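Final report, section 2: Outcomes. Of the targets proposed, SDR family NAD(P)-dependent oxidoreductase is the one most frequently requested by collaborating groups, and we therefore present its record in full.
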Amino acid sequence: MKTILVTGVAGFIGSKVTEMLIDQGYHVVGIDNLNDYYDVRIKNWRLAQLETKKDSFTFYPIDIENLEDLDRVFQNHKIDAVMNLAARAGVRYSMENPHIYMTTNANGHLNILEFCRKYEIQKVILASTSSLYAGQKMPFTEELPVNTPISPYAASKKAAEAMSYSYHYLYGLDISIVRYFTVYGPAGRPDMSVFRFIKWTLEGKSLEIFGDGSQSRDFTYVDDIARGTIKALNPLGFEVINLGNNNPDKLSKMIEYIENYSAQKSQYEHKPFHKADITATWADISKAKALLDWEPQVSLEEGIERTVKWTKENWDWLKKVKL
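The predicted structure is given below as tokens.
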């Protein structure tokens, strides 16, 4: 049984990746500092689902910025690969707290790389972001220059990507960087639009929309993202790979699906479009198809239907989650 270290294991994507890894016969060592960037109740719920599989799951409530704690984890386990999915996320919040984004997303990833070098762990996966493509021509391809990040969040991810290449070049680490495009689904992040819009709709509250709703996103269902991330465990050398839906939808279309499957009409409150946001994302996934034999399977309509259903089934505690 191979052992995979997953950081950010109580996070939205990290928990789904871990669930799939366990189902595929891996043992997962999970790390998460359970910070309160968003309501920790949802992180605790995700973690509780994983802890029902204790024979295949070991959890450490630590921070990837803490070298001493990290070293103990690497010493205690024979780790075959590391998936660094821990990150400070959120474009707007990164403008308020830029330092924590650099210490977690850049320095924290450097800590991971150093321990992989020290303990001779060859395979590393880094979760990165489509936010790096701001201002580039669509559809976004991995070969585009991403040297003009427009938020501290994107800049911190660019730093982590650059450091990854250094460790590949110097020490031969096999590193796959997966750039995610607007991930959504059950147990999603409360700071993201799908979670918020569903909750507000069920509560009968107005939806806060930045801009006129015409902006488009390559909404990608979490199960598809998790499958692609796991496929990136294959030996690839050094690669940057888009994981997206390759089918942008307008925000207004996503809202329409929420209204249909919640059987409730939404009210809207429009706010100015945020300077650090981008108007559209669109992933070219040719590389993911070629290298990983991966493409998304869940349409936005089906994904929203599943997410609304999960929200209703868990409404007793979800209605208390703060946005």
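The chain has twelve helices and 13 strands.
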